[in-house]
């Protein structure tokens, strides 16, 4: 995770998104969403960390691949989102 930027207001996050990963070392949180001291906030960070790992694996293909999956499966059922939710659930011990 070297070089990861955690913070809010760093860059505009699309309406409705809690946070987005734009490259293998950047997580952008929507206003108020970076909240590591709550269960929901920690779960969101865990979810976004999985997207960081996906981006590290895929390099420049991360953004095109996740957008294509959104187009085919929709946000909720996109395999990369299912993967990130599963990771966050595991991290949170649910
Ligand atoms: Zn996600």
Task: Report the biggest beta sheet as strand number plus sense, adding barrel if it closes.
Answer: 3 strands, mixed
Distinct compounds present: zinc ion
Cα(first) to Cα(last) distance is: 24 Å
Q: Per the principal axes of the C-alpha atoms, what is the gross shape?
A: globular
Number of helices: 3
Q: Decide which structural class fits the backbone.
A: alpha+beta
Total strands: the figure is: 3
Strand order of the largest sheet: 1-3-2
How are helices and strands ordered from N to C?
A: EEEHHH
Mean pLDDT: 85
> What portion of the residues fall into strands of 2 or more residues?
5-15%
Helicity range of the residues?
40-55%
Poorly predicted segments: none
Q: What is the CA-atom radius of gyration, in angstroms?
A: 13 Å
